[in-house]
Structures are given as C-alpha cells and as structure tokens.
Write a structure and sequence with these properties.
The strands form 3 sheets. The protein has a 4-stranded mixed sheet with strand order 4-5-1-6, covered by helices on one side. Strands 7, 8, 9 and 10 form a 4-stranded mixed sheet that branches. The protein is globular, with a radius of gyration of 17 Å. A hairpin with a 6-residue loop joins strand 4 (58-59) and strand 5. 37% of the residues lie in helices and 20% in strands. By secondary structure, it is an alpha/beta fold. The longest helix has 17 residues, at 143-159. Bound molecules: adenosine-5'-triphosphate and iron/sulfur cluster. Heterotetramer of 2 NUBP1 and 2 NUBP2 chains. Interacts with KIFC1. Interacts with NUBP1. Keywords: 4Fe-4S, ATP-binding, Cytoplasm, Iron, Iron-sulfur, Metal-binding, Nucleotide-binding. Its cofactor is [4Fe-4S] cluster.
Length: 250
C-alpha cells in the first residue's frame, strides 16, 4: 500500500528465507520509478543480456537460487528517471513476465510500487495465465498506512487476487541492550485489519538496525543474523507461505 513501509524489504527477506529452505526464487521488481531490489542484493551494477529464450535475469549467487529482473538493470545510469505513461509500463511488465528466461522456479515474488496504479493492474493481468498464488500486503502499524492497505484489499477483491496475508512491518523496536520493546509507530494495526478483513495475519516484524544495515550492504540477513529481533518473524512468514502452498503443483 503505502510508500516506504517495507515491501522491498519483505520481498528480499522472504526470498532469502525461501532459499534457505532449498527453494529456487525469482524476484520481479515492477517498481519502475524507484527500483530498489538490485541495491538490496548489491548487484546494481549488473546488466541483463538476451539469449534465445529472452532476457537472462541477474543471478545473486553461483548456484543461481535467486534470480532478479528489474528496470534498474536496463537503465544507462542508476539515477536515470523513468517518466512513462501507462501503456509503456504495461508493455514492459508484460515482457518481464513473458520474455525473461526465469528457468525452473519454485516461487516468483513480485515487488510492487506503492498504490494501486498501472503497474499493479498490468502485473495482475500479465500473471493471470500463470495462476498466481496471491498477494502479501505489507503495512506499518499506523492508521495512515493501514488505510492504504485497506485499498489494496479492495484492489485484490476486484481483480480476483487471493490475499495470502498481511505483514505488519516496523512493529516496535526491541532494544539491543535490554530487549525492552518500544512501540515507536504504535502496534497492532495490521493484525486488527487482518482480523476485520478475514484474511490471515502473517506476523509482526520489528524495526531492526541489523536488518536495515544488511539491506544497505546487500548482505544475507537470514544467514548472518539468526539471533536478531526481526529474524523469527521473517522466518515464520516464509514458513507460513511454504505451509500454505504447493508451488510444484500450482
Ligand atoms: N523491519 C525493519 N527494520 C529496520 N529497517 C527497515 C525495516 N523494514 C524496512 N526497513 C528500512 O526502511 C526503508 C524502506 O523500506 P523498503 O524500501 O523495503 O520500503 P518499500 O515499501 O519497498 O518502499 P517503496 O514504497 O519506496 O517501494 C529501507 O531503508 C529499509 O532498509
Ligand atoms: S530501552 Fe532501556 S536499555 Fe534500551 S536504550 Fe532505552 S533506556 Fe537504554
């Protein structure tokens, strides 16, 4: 829903958690005006190239267990601005879905921009033939962010997209000295909304300086910081996705 609530963060950590469980994951970054996935994996200087079956995505590691596609890899300079109208965005998203040599993935996670705009409609339409599992909605605990997620719920209903659940991010800060939890942005808004809307609540991820530092430096938070405050919630979210899906058969 809202900008800056942690959609790319949850996308990144979910992909890392699923890889940790032995799954092959692709990430499609359809945030055309503010792509942040390449930077979060520290592969922002990579380019994509063409092969017979389409664009080859950028692989994060040697074993090719995480592959990425983002407009960030197609820009000449990282600071180039994408000022496009809907039809051009629609055409690129269609290409991202159909013309990328994703290979044999267990999961494709799509990271979206805020709102319910051209990118969202194009993505849902382009993915429809592949029968997407559903949407994960990310909010912070405050009413202003929860309100935006309410609009996303309506969008999902209108477009027939199943809601896998709601994640409440930046939900409290656990002091690294005394483990006291301070609810900086209040608490519980996401969980309440999930209850009210009758969709699963996937968990509360606290503000965690080790998480933001890992993302800044493109490090594998799931592997390197299993004792940090955000780890259990992130692992639990991934487990619920694994428990609730059978990707090979869908
Ligand atoms: N739980 C968390 N703990 C600490 N930092 C976090 C947490 N979640 C997100 N952040 C930080 O907040 C910032 C915004 O997160 P992110 O880019 O994931 O948001 P977004 O919703 O994808 O933004 P946009 O709407 O611009 O696409 C990032 O710098 C990220 O490192
Ligand atoms: S919560 Fe307590 S220990 Fe942690 S920073 Fe605040 S005063 Fe210090």
């Amino acid at each position: 829903g809202k900008g800056g609530v942690g959609k790319s963060t949850i996308t990144t950590e979910l992909a890392l958690s699923l890889r940790h469980s032995g799954r092959k994951v692709g990430i499609l970054d359809v945030d055309l005006c503010g792509p942040s996935i390449p930077r979060m994996f520290k592969v922002q200087d990579n380019d994509v190239h063409q092969c017979d079956s389409g664009w080859v995505p950028v692989f994060v590691d040697q074993d090719k267990s995480i592959s990425l596609m983002s407009i960030g890899f197609l820009l000449e300079k990282p600071d180039d601005a994408v000022v496009w109208r809907g039809p051009k965005k629609n055409a690129l998203i269609k290409q991202f879905v159909a013309d990328v040599a994703w290979g044999d993935l267990d999961f494709l996670i799509v990271d979206t921009p805020p709102g319910t705009s051209d990118e969202h409609i194009s993505t849902v339409e382009a993915l429809r033939p592949y029968k997407p599992l559903g949407a994960i909605l990310v909010t912070t605990p405050q009413a202003v962010s929860v309100g935006d997620v309410r609009r996303e719920l309506t969008f999902c209903k209108k477009t027939g997209l199943r809601v896998l659940g709601i994640v409440e991010n930046m939900s409290g800060f656990v002091c690294p000295h005394c483990s006291e939890c301070t609810n900086i942005f209040s608490k519980g808004g996401g969980e309440e909304l999930a209850k009210h809307a009758g969709v699963p609540f996937l968990g509360s991820v606290p503000l965690d300086p080790q998480l933001s530092q890992s993302l800044e430096e493109g490090r594998d938070f799931i592997q390197e910081f299993p004792k940090s405050s955000a780890f259990p919630a992130l692992a639990h979210i991934a487990q619920q996705i694994l428990d609730g899906t059978s990707p090979r058969s869908s």
